[in-house]
Amino acid sequence: MIARGDYVGPLTKSAEAMFARAERRARRAAGMDAATQASSGRDARPASVLRDAVDQLGLKISTLRQWEDAGIIAFERRKGRRIVDAAALERLALVAKLRRAGFSVREIAWLSDTLPPNAAILRDALEARQAYVETARTRTIVGAIAKGGSKPARPPAHRAPPIERAA
After folding, report:
1. H/E/C letters for each residue in 137-151?
2. Cα dihedral value 85, 88, 93, 97, nearest 10
3. Is 69 helix (H, G, I), strand (E, B) or coil?
4. Contacts of 118 (CB under 8 A, 6+ apart)
5. Helix, strand, coil % in the chain, rounded to nearest 5
6. Which of 52, 148, 60 lies closest to 96, judged by CA?
7. Is the pTM here over 0.90, yes or no?
8. CB 116 within 8 A of CB 71
9. What is the CB neighbour count within 10 angstroms for residue 42?
10. 93 contact partners, CB below 8 Å, separation of at least 6
């Protein structure tokens, strides 16, 4: 990267943006904390609460946008930015667990008549799916033992039945 002082071309908006990005990266690499960055000028931005939540849950921002478009999560917004409070973080964690348990986005949306579904409905659906999968695994193991084998002939299909919409 060319240093700002060594640059001989015209200082266009694009060149200024390039230097600003390079300076922010250099500050981050040097390990400056948020307080130091905030006092260093206009380029510093506070850390995004949404970014922290996404990193904590192992998700992507694009995934959250898809879930928000589907109506299974909703965020309070201030000045166009998503605000993640404790309730929204809990719903995000539950939706992520449901997706990992095999629910489709459509099935999650169908769990409740209101969108986004509340946390209690999400928790109940997750517990029901986990109980179903555990029962299916147990039946597979018992069936294999009854046939005299130590392993099932084919891997079990732990696909849950379709979700019925709550009344």
Report:
1. HHHHHHHHHHCCCCC
2. 180
3. helix
4. 112
5. 55, 5, 40
6. 60
7. no
8. yes
9. 6
10. 57
- Kindly tell me if the per-residue pLDDT of 16 is higher than 70: yes
The tokens describing 17, both together, are 């943006």
- The residues with which 78 forms a beta bridge, in sequence order, are 81
Between residues 128 and 7, which one has the greater pLDDT? 128
Q: Where are the alpha helices (DSSP H) in 30-148?
A: 34-39, 49-57, 61-70, 86-100, 105-110, 119-146
The confidence score (pLDDT) of residue 163 equals 67
Q: Which residues, 6+ apart, have CB-to-CB distance to 34 below 8 Å?
A: 44, 46, 47
pLDDT per position as a tens digit, 57-76: 888 888 888 888 888 888 88
Domain range summary for the chain, segments of one domain joined by +: 1-46
Sign of CA dihedral 114, 118, 121, 123: positive
pLDDT in tens, 81-125: 888 888 888 888 888 988 888 888 888 888 876 677 778 888 888
Closest listed residue to residue 164, CA positions, set 124, 119, 120 = 124
Q: Are 152 and 145 in contact (CB under 8 A)?
A: no
